[in-house]
């Protein structure tokens, strides 16, 4: 009987298909994956420690660099946590603008996931489609906050500035075109039999395992659980919007892909409702220049980020800087199932699984 030796193949940390500084050590027996050992830390920046040396306002731009592909979402989560800590009431107009910017960021993140999965699996045109459509969101971010990739437009107490007059028609046009974008993505990739062969039945994450590992976001919903913090524990004004929670049935790579595509449609619905009901008024609360919460207060706040549950835990000692800040990063936790979903597959499945788990190393390492 022929026997094979166990050997190791290193994927990353500079391989493009690892979506950043991820090092996956594949333990192979012939063509079959025995295990995958995940190594992190290549882009560690001590963000949580830096928070202890910055005032509450000064730390806002750092949060934009956690999930830099969905830049307004981590900023929103942090600002809402500080507002919860201090009891700050955000004006209505600012709440609606925040929702619009948050959902645009969710779409931008998912479009990168779609584009990256396309190029990772050899569909170069898929990369072009996703990047082309995402560019329209970058233009909107530049229109409002002056920056494209890293936006600190959301601030503690509201937003940095009111939206310009051309904002609403441009965003309406984009939201209107989302179904057409989805048709193109599906026509090029989802319905392609080669694509289905690379995705269907690959990287199955069972419902039970997803819950045990603490997986959240689209990866959890692809395993069959209709759980979304925007509905389960609404924050801001999300309880005012009507949208559906897309779910999968098998928990494989194809389901994770389909869930993200359908979430584009639901985010578009939320944006249109927010535009329809956008009130006039103030865009920021009256916030003191120096924020000093009461000593001994600790607060945890979570939002539904593009990758899953993004939470901030802050402890106050009465000073103008956080005594302690911790980020519950969804990508870090979601990455822990990579060995589980890869075992028993073939080497190329590692690339597929990384792409469809959609981690962002900026928040995984912090």
Would you spell out the secondary-structure blueprint of this structure?
Blueprint: E1 6-11, E2 23-29, E3 32-39, H1 47-51, H2 60-63, H3 72-86, H4 92-120, H5 124-145, E4 154-155, E5 158-159, H6 167-190, H7 193-199, H8 207-213, H9 218-221, H10 229-232, H11 253-276, E6 298-304, E7 309-315, E8 324-328, H12 330-335, H13 338-342, H14 347-357, H15 361-365
Antiparallel strand pairs: 1-2, 2-3, 4-5, 6-7, 7-8
Helix pairs in contact: 4-5, 4-11, 4-14, 5-6, 6-11, 11-14
Q: What is the radius of gyration? A: 21 Å
Range of helix content: 40-55%
Distance between the termini: 48 Å
Unreliable stretches covering 5 or more consecutive residues = none
Q: What general outline do the C-alpha atoms trace? A: globular
The secondary-structure class comes to alpha+beta
CATH first level: Mainly Alpha
How much is the average pLDDT? Answer: 91
Query: From the 3D coordinates, which CATH architecture would you assign?
Result: Orthogonal Bundle
| Strand line-up across the major sheet | 1-2-3
- What's the β-strand tally? 8
């Amino acid at each position: 009987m022929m026997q094979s030796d166990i050997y190791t193949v290193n994927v990353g940390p500079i391989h493009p298909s690892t979506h950043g500084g991820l090092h996956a050590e594949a333990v192979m027996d012939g063509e079959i994956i025995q295990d995958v050992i995940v190594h992190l830390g290549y882009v560690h920046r001590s963000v949580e420690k830096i928070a202890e040396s910055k005032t509450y306002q000064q730390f806002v731009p750092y949060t934009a660099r956690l999930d830099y592909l969905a830049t307004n979402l981590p900023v929103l989560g942090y600002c809402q946590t500080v507002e919860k800590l201090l009891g700050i009431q955000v004006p209505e107009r600012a709440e609606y603008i925040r929702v619009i910017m948050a959902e645009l960021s969710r779409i931008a993140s998912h479009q990168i996931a779609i584009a990256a999965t396309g190029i990772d699996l050899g569909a170069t045109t898929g990369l072009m489609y996703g990047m082309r459509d995402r560019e329209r969101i970058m233009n909107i971010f530049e229109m409002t906050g002056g920056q494209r990739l890293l936006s600190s437009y959301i601030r503690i107490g509201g937003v940095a500035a009111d939206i310009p007059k051309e904002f609403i028609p441009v965003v309406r046009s984009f939201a209107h075109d989302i179904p057409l974008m989805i048709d193109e993505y599906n026509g090029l990739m989802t319905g392609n039999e080669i694509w289905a062969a690379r995705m269907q039945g690959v990287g199955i994450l069972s419902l039970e395992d997803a819950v045990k590992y603490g997986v959240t976001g689209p990866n959890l919903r692809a395993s069959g659980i209709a759980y979304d913090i925007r509905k389960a524990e609404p924050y801001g004004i999300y309880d005012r919007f009507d949208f559906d929670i897309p779910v999968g049935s098998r928990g494989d790579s194809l389901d994770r892909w389909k869930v993200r595509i359908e979430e584009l449609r639901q985010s578009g619905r939320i944006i249109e409702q927010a535009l329809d009901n956008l009130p006039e008024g103030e865009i920021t609360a009256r916030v003191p220049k120096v924020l000093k919460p009461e000593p001994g207060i600790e607060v945890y706040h979570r939002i539904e980020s593009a990758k899953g549950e993004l939470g901030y835990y802050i402890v106050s000692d009465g000073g103008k800087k956080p005594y302690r800040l911790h980020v519950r990063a969804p990508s870090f936790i979601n990455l822990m199932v990579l060995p589980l979903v890869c075992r028993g597959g073939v080497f190329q499945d590692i690339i597929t699984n990384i792409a469809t788990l959609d981690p962002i190393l900026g928040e995984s390492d912090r």
